[in-house]
Write a structure and sequence with these properties.
By secondary structure, the chain is α/β, with parallel strands linked by helices. Helix content is about 35%, strand content about 15%.
Length: about 210
């Protein structure tokens, strides 16, 4: 599915978000990932930037492994492993998504080139291999919450996503912590704190 805002046909440098469906966050409201927030940020940016843009919405749940396998991987993650190792323990690939449909959508719209809204170098490579001309990247970074910090850390450390340590915890003074436990040892070491002071849950990075 392709959502178009504004006049993009025949244009160059069109802001485009290639987004994979996430039933668990977008429908059920799960906080274990940043998918829903990234989609919302992308749509807000497209609406506000004045040039229009496109969201290519693909059915590739769980980095392509499907909803049932994704739920199974969630269960494995409860044992303490990250999203990458959970997939591997189940004999599933790290990421099996492909983007040939995006090239077809953009060709149908006669879009000459795009500014891709992503943090994922693999997505850039796959789209370029599919024939999409990418002239720039627009970061789409969401701050971590208490439930997805490990997932975002794994995306940056294991899958090379460009997140600028956004999965870390920040306090009101701007001090960065790698975990809630580390934050507790800092200014919140007395054990009394407001989670809203420790965690910034949403941060736009459209540089």
């Amino acid at each position: 599915m392709c959502l178009v805002y504004g006049e993009v046909e025949g244009q160059s440098d069109v802001p485009v978000r290639v987004h994979d469906a996430c039933f668990t966050s977008e429908v059920l409201g799960s906080l274990k990932c940043d998918c829903k927030q990234q989609l919302e940020l992308a749509m807000d940016y497209i609406k506000e930037n004045g040039r229009g843009g496109i969201v290519c919405y693909l059915q590739q749940e769980g980095r392509g492994i499907g909803l049932a396998n994704k739920i199974a991987a969630y269960a494995v993650q409860e044992t303490g492993v990250d999203t990458v190792d959970a997939n591997r323990q189940l004999g599933l690939p790290d990421d099996t998504r492909e983007y040939s449909a995006v090239e077809n959508m953009l060709r149908e719209l006669n879009v000459q080139s795009i500014q891709l809204m992503t943090n994922n170098p693999r997505k850039i490579r796959e789209l370029e291999c599919a024939g999409v001309k990418i002239t720039g990247r627009i970061p789409c970074i969401v701050k971590a919450n208490l439930f997805n910090e490990g997932y975002l850390a794994a995306k940056e450390r294991r899958m090379s996503h460009v997140l600028d340590n956004s999965w870390c915890y920040w306090d009101a003074a701007g001090t960065v912590y790698n975990s809630i436990d580390e934050a507790m040892e800092g200014d919140y070491g007395d054990g009394t704190y407001d989670e809203c002071d420790v965690v910034i849950t949403k941060n736009r990075r459209f540089d």
